[in-house]
Amino acid sequence: MDWNPLGQKTISRKFSLYSPMCWSTKIDFSSNLTSISKYGGLIATVKDESQSNRTGNRPDIFIFNAAGKIISSFRWSSGILIGIAWTHADELLCLQDDGQVLLYNMFWDFQKSFTMGMECRENKIMEYEVFSSVHGTGLAVMNGLYRFCIVNNIEEPKVRILADIPGLRATPPSSWCVVQGPRGAKVLAANECNIFLLDHSGQCSQQKPTDLNAAPNAYIAMATSMDGKHVALYADTGTIWIGSADFQDKYCEFNTSNRSRPKQLLWCSDRGYRNIAVVVYWPKTILVVSPQKDWVRFNVDEDNLDRNGTGSAVLAADVDGVHIVTSERHEFLQHVPNAISGIFKVGSMAPGALLNDAAKEYDKQSEKADEYLRILLENRQLKEAVEQCTLAALDEFQPRIQKTLLRAASFGKSFVPDIKLTELFVNTCQMLRVLNAVRDFNTGIALTAAQLENLSMDYLIDRLILRRQFHLAFHVCQYLKIPEKQGSSRILSHWACYKVQQKDVDDGKIAAAVRDKLKSARGVSYANIAEKAVECGRRDLAIKLLEFDPRASEQVRLLSLLGKHTLALEKAVASGNTDLIYSAIARLRERTSLSDFLVAIRQQPVAYKLHLKYCKEQNERMLKDLHEQEDNFIELAHCHIHDSFDTFRSDERVISLHSALDNFTKAKDDFGMKMTEEQLQLLREQSQLEQELDESFIEKSLHDTICSLLKINQLKRAEHLRKQFKLSDKRWWWLRITALAEQGNFAELENFSKSKKSPIGYYPFVEVCIQHNAYTEVTKYIGKVQLDKRVPAFLKIGSIKHAAEAAMQTKSLSDLDAVLKKCGAEHRDIADRVRAMMMQAQET
Amino acid sequence: MAGGDYPDVSMLKELAREQLTILLGNFYGKKDLVIDPGLMTPLDRLTGVQFLKHKGVDKIFKLEHKEILGGCDQRVYIVRPQVKSMRNIAAHIHSDKRAGKLRKYRILMVPRRLHVCEMILEQEGVYGSVQIEDLHIGLIPIDSDIISLENPQLLDSFFMEGDYTWLHTVARTIVNLQSTFGTIPNVYGQGHAAKIVETLVQTLTSELGEKKSPLQHKIGHIVLLDRDVDYVTPLCSQVTYEGLLDDIFEIKCGAIEFGPEVTGTEKVAKTMLNSEDAIFSQIRNRHFTGVFKYLSSRAKEIQANYDKRHNMELQELKNFVSEELKGLKQEHRSLTLHIGASEVIMKHKTKGSLKRGDLQDILGVEHNLLEGSDFRQCVSYIEECIHRQYDMLLTLRLLCLLSCTTSGLLAKDYQSLKLKFLHSYGFEHMITFFNLKKAGLLTEAVTGKEVAPSSIESNLNKLADSRGVGSAVSYVTSSLAALQKKDWFRTVSKKLSLIPKAGVECNLQNPNDMSYVFGGAYTPLTCRLVEQAIQRQGWGGLEDVLRHLPGTNFEKIEARSAKGGKSTVGSAASKVVLVYFIGGVTYSEIAALRFLGRQKGYRIIIATTAIINGSRMLRSFVETVK
């Protein structure tokens, strides 16, 4: 471990993340363009064409994980590549000298491209800087006119041209860098010893470092801190001026006594920017200078130092340190986190250190353990100590030390019952488990705990998905018990989306594989996967995948999109959601010819029925067409009958009925024909009657028509209808007697009763007389009525005496009882006789 | 058994109210409501005018085919998603536009919007002017044990037209019930619609992502029954008190309006009919013969209670006035109404009005039909009904009963009765007969000769070919169904002993059998099926009965523990049964199921798409002329 104190308080350390690297052949970074990503340390490298002689061979771009394990490699085939850089979304930005920017993911799937504008195309780009801003990733370039163009966010590539540097002669600016500002990025550029701040509104202001002692000829390097608040200027005198970004505060001026231009100048900070330092890299040497003018020098092992002395290491700032990648190893330079330094600083008396010692002694079964523990307990520092050990373990890279620290924390924890500590401890163990898993060289995500905290676990999982580490991502989600929808199901969906892109695998196999994996996952949208398949031009696969989606609405939507209207209809029908069926029908109707439509819909009885219903309400013409198509004459006939009642015009009515008749004929429905013919006949009769009698008959049933005729004493005409329609005698008698009774024509009623033997018996005569309160008439018929019906009739007309007599004859208990109930005081003798009869009846 | 364990269906009311609160609240400010006539009573049942006023509702209109004059600048339509309603709304908007009246419109569709409706609005050119939202009013609690969709449309749209739009709604309500009261472990069903619903429930649940209900389930069994499994029961005249009230006065959404003939005054009395009314809950399920006796004894009791006050000290009197009097008065009011109603019923029963015929005679005919005796006599009675132009629905009801109990009429009888019917009631009923034929209510039996065997075979093949939910509706024609199930009613009623043996008297006052709801003449088939299903915990052993019924049967039974013992879950829930009638249920069946529940110690909750009786059931098939 390489610990070096940087001033009184801080210590900086440089340690190996991965060593040796996984790559098989050594890579000469000195002649390569290289970029290392933040949050994970992806390495992309490509031979720098501008340095080497053009041989005609296009360069290969290699992408490695942080451990140097190759992820992918591709041959660059576009224009002249002058720079590559990782964006915040782990996409590789490739910049061509003509200002064309191409973005690829790490598997070389093209994502998007944009250009830096005409001026850059005509006056080739010379230098560039990629920066991360609040908006995302930004790009600044300097073209051949020494003019700067900036894109603040590559997601919305809007090119802004900055003000020119004043007084610039034919030489390029001696150095420049991007400064983050609240309203977009600006560029700080030095023309020899004059520094200018350029912004996109054409403003240009000269900046003078405060209290500068050295008098340089030129500034040959400069860098601003990631938060844009601090600036470091490297003068050709070997002096570094460190101060605030507005040049008002000078923190220090440090003489490196090295006049050569540093290979890289960058800022190293810790999380929260409490400790900052400037890192200067010359071949073989790294110098760390703090604003307090403290400094540390580290050596870099560069075995294949280039002949011309250019360094072969690549440095890249991350949020809490600096990645240093050489051909041999991947190292990390950072301020030692407080928790760790507190414990491991020589002679530290911090609570964490004591606890760590106590735990060690305890393991040795030494009584000193108790001693240390007592100190902590007396000072009430044990809780703090446990916290320190836990947090230190979190910030530590080596599992061995993590374990030691966690053991110490766990040891201390048993003396302080505190739920919060337990939580912290458990969470820390989980985090470490995940971190150690992703740091494994196979995955090679070199993430510190602080970075993970900034990034958040969700994003880490996203990155794993981006790297197609589905398996690991899946297990992380399960381990952390992340809800399925955001966790395992989402990952499986991504996996499936990736799977469907495998062009060489057969549709059926992919569908089966996807189904197999996703079977038990909940909340997976097969429709999304299918959509992905459609994007890849695999429509058949998409249809297969859709089979699995439980949401019929999605299936139908996508199938319609694919033009599979018939299948969409089938799915809609299977869903049982009629609404879906209707929309599928509507789309099918829009997109296909009528004949195809009819063929398709006939194969789906449910849809067909729905369509019929719709037509019934909406489009009767269509309804009839459909029935016609099906030779469904009975239905058609009924449609026409329906029509005949929809109109008030008798001619239309007759036409409709004739159509109905035709269809009954076609259907060989004799009864239907007969009925319809009768109705036509009735209509004829009725209209004739209307003409003759000045009364309305149409709309009436046959029965009602005759009834009306009888009421207006048109017996002849009624008789005529009776014959015409072969009315049964029973009906005729009913009609006659009700009409006569209603008219109060009881004399005629009596005559009618004697005209011949009544087919309906004589009780109806009694009934109608009672109904019209002609009680005296009742006696004329009652003799012809069956005995059992006489009692209620007599009672009804108030003839108790006759009722009693009738009841005596029937000897029915209920009849007798009914009579008895009606007997008043004046019928005492009758009542007595009835009672006697009842007694007698009961006995027998 | 503590009451708290039972599912409290009144929760559903709260859910509906909450939804309405949100939807109306989103539409800030004063607004008018325009309500589908069919939704008036259910909405009233759920909310009440006070509630609506509180949510900023100004005036309430009925949605009709005419303009609404006046009203404020915002208008909310609450409608069923029907073409006709959409056209009416569009007409309103157009007339407002012509008059230069600017208004904001919202349409709340119950229970959900349909694509067709949106299409209509688009065709009418008003789609842009309205905002459409779903108002998921599903099952409305009518009583503590009855929940109803109050959607009588389902009957004809499914059983006649094969449109299962509403089955989706039924399935959705079951899913909702399950999310409120826990997943119901045991499912039994009979019928086409029931099968579709069951499949839909599963689809919907899986679409929702199998959200495991955290609750212990409160309902142990669900029985799904199609109405067409048993058309016979609703076709019979009802003789329980509640059934008679429904037949004579028509109960709407658990409330009834008594006209002057009952109240004896000019006023119309509206009263709720539910278990909260102590007197009503005592008589509702009784056979009518027992009602009067109870009412009179009750009247005496109340009188006695009133009379108490004469011998009271001052303090006692104070207590009496403050505590008992109100209750007594309420009971008094309810007693008066029910006595009045009973008198009206008596009149109907004994005299028979000009157009209705004598109830005793009708009952006699019905009993004969159920028993399968004196067929000719029954036919001639029906002919008499036709000749005398009795109430058409009555005649039709008897005709359908005739057809249903004999598995379709012989062509000769069918044609002669139809001819007579058309002569009496008009030619438009050609369509009514056609509708009833499609629904399987009034059919013409086809003799073996007339149907070529090959056509049956092809139909059967078609049936076998078609898979999935959809095909279940692809009915074989009703004639074929009739052919397969010749005399099925006779067979089924024998096997399930629906018709008591001759000579066995049913005690109507203290019944010992469900058949009391039809005066001991008939046990409703549906209720017997429910009884068998929960007793046998499935359909096992009933195959040769179910074979005769329309549709398929299915069961899904919760896995039991290996020992074959009772399931470990709460035994209270295993005694709770939800019976879902797809197509409607009658009060007689409700009474029978209540009896069954009491008898066997089950808590039976009845869910239905609507509460029907014979007339209401048939009315939906009758063709009306403009």
UniProtKB/TrEMBL annotation, chain A:
UniProt domain Vps16 N-terminal: residue ranges: 2-416
Compartment(s) of residence: Late endosome membrane; Lysosome membrane
UniProt domain Vps16 C-terminal: residue ranges: 524-838
Pfam families for this protein: Vps16_C (PF04840), Vps16_N (PF04841)
Annotated membrane topology: Peripheral membrane protein
Family designation: Belongs to the VPS16 family.
Protein name: Vacuolar protein sorting-associated protein 16 homolog
Lineage: Eukaryota, Metazoa, Chordata, Tunicata, Ascidiacea
From TrEMBL, chain B:
CC annotations in GO: CORVET complex; lysosome
Superkingdom of source: Eukaryota
InterPro entries: Sec-1-like_dom1 (IPR043154), Sec-1-like_dom3a (IPR043127), Sec1-like (IPR001619), Sec1-like_dom2 (IPR027482), Sec1-like_sf (IPR036045), VPS33_dom3b (IPR043155)
GO BP terms: intracellular protein transport; vesicle-mediated transport
Pfam families in the record: Sec1
UniProt record similarity statement: Belongs to the STXBP/unc-18/SEC1 family.
Protein name per its UniProtKB record: Vacuolar protein sorting-associated protein 33B
Organism, scientific name: Ciona intestinalis
Gene behind the chain: LOC100180059
